[in-house]
Amino acid sequence: MKTLYISDLDGTLLTPDACLSERSTQLLQQLSAEGVLFSCATARSIVSVRSILSRVQMPMPVVLMNGVCIYDMHARQYQHYETIGVQTALQVTEILEQMQVPAFLYTIEGQGLGCFHHRLD
After folding, report:
1. Which of 21, 23, 34, 44 is the residue whose CA sits 20 to 30 A from 11?
2. What are the structural domain ranges in the chain?
3. Residue 98 main-chain phi, psi, to 5 deg
4. 25, burial (CB in 10 Å: exposed 0-12, middle 13-18, buried 19+)
């Protein structure tokens, strides 16, 4: 039986300037070549994760946006993502507007990630 190792990115695997160090890159490449199962789980979206991990082979899918999405870096596609219904999204948006809390709304259509932000102030 193999063990899957999962790491957070920010505050764990990345340097303080949100980069993957050369040493970490080399170690992850070596582990991947040896068949070690490694992935990451992060609050980030694929936009920044793809850039950060561009020099590392990631045969295992990564967990994105605090568990909302599972993304296959090799195939460059979402394997799974959680959604909320339109009515729920409208209700949440209305509550946030009433409370004057700015928020982001993300959509996934096909393999594209859309991000919407409405200034509520």
Report:
1. 34
2. 1-82, 83-121
3. -60, -40
4. middle
Query: Would you tell me which CATH number, out of the four given (3.20.20.70, 2.40.70.10, 3.40.47.10, 3.40.50.1000), belongs to the domain 1-82?
Result: 3.40.50.1000
Distance, CA of 46 to CA of 55 (rounded, Å) = 15
Residues 6 or more apart in contact with residue 109 via CB below 8 angstroms: none
Rounded to an integer, what is the distance from CA 86 to the centroid of its chain? 23
Q: Of 58, 51, 61, nearest to 18 (Cα)? A: 51
| Phi, psi of 43, rounded to the nearest 5 degrees | -80, -15
End-to-end CA distance of the chain: 54
pLDDT digits (tens, 9 = 90+) for 42-101: 999 999 999 999 999 888 999 999 999 999 999 999 999 999 998 998 899 889 889 988
- The answer to whether 35 touches 47, Cβ cutoff 8 Å, is no
* Exposed/middle/buried for residue 63 (C-beta within 10 Å: 0-12, 13-18, 19+): buried
